[in-house]
Amino acid sequence: MRETSESSGPTLLCIVGPPAVGKMTVGIEIAGRTGYKLFHNHLSIEPVLRFFDFGTEPFGRLVGEFRRRIFEEVAASSIPGLIFTYAWAFDVPEDQAELEGYTAPFRDNGSRILYLELSATQEARLERNQGELRLAEKPSKRDLARSRQHLLDADAQYRLNSNGEFDGRDDYLRIDNTALSAEAVAIHTIKHFGLPGKTGHPGTA
User: Residues with Cβ < 8 Å from 97, sequence gap 6 or more?
Assistant: First the structure.
């Protein structure tokens, strides 16, 4: 992952972390305070699941193409910023390559690319896995037994947090949000990166 510098183009904030850590919920809070648009990963996943099973080649192609097209259009637009959520397996080189590909239109356009990594205990994430907002936005997670097993399997198979690999970089922020509200994480992130506050919204300064 390449470090990026500030620019005047649309900002891309990638929120990464394991399943049910709160990426979407934090993204909603940041979007509300900055005016950025939220593109949580299931906005591309859920429509494709109506036709193809998760992990199949057609599924991967369609999800990837949809995401790339969104990024290309936003990077070339006057939208102030985009928030993207992604479950990054740090021990899978293909995941880093995929994320690099998604961010490429912003990088090529000279935009600022930022990373917020969230971590939380498995116990906290298993509880959040049943959250009302999560189930409303992600229909495929409504089979609670299946989504719980997916979370446990992902934890067992992959390294879903960086363990400090990118600490010290200006474009990277790592937060353990086990005991923090989404609002608190959003406010801290906005302050840390100096993101613009949406006029009239409290808690951005």
Answer: none
Which residues are 38's β-sheet partners?
A: 83
The CATH superfamily of 11-193 is P-loop containing nucleotide triphosphate hydrolases (3.40.50.300)
Mean pLDDT of the chain: 91
Q: Read off the pTM.
A: 0.88
For residue 23, which of 141, 128, 114 has the smallest C-alpha distance?
128
At residue 14, φ and ψ (nearest 5 deg) are: -95, 120
State the Cα–Cα distance between residues 76 and 108, nearest whole angstrom.
10
Distance CA 20, CA 36 (A): 22
Q: What is the per-residue pLDDT across 143-161, written as a single tens digit (0 to 9) for each?
A: 899 999 999 999 999 999 9
Residue matched to tokens 């990426």 = 23
Q: In what order do the strands lie in the sheet with 11-16?
A: 37-39, 81-86, 11-16, 113-119, 172-176
43: closest CA among 79, 7, 103, 86?
A: 86
Is residue 128 within 8 A of residue 20, CB to CB? The reply is yes
Task: Judge whether 107 and 62 are in contact, CB under 8 Å.
Answer: no
Q: What residue segments make up the domains of the chain, in order of their start?
A: 11-193
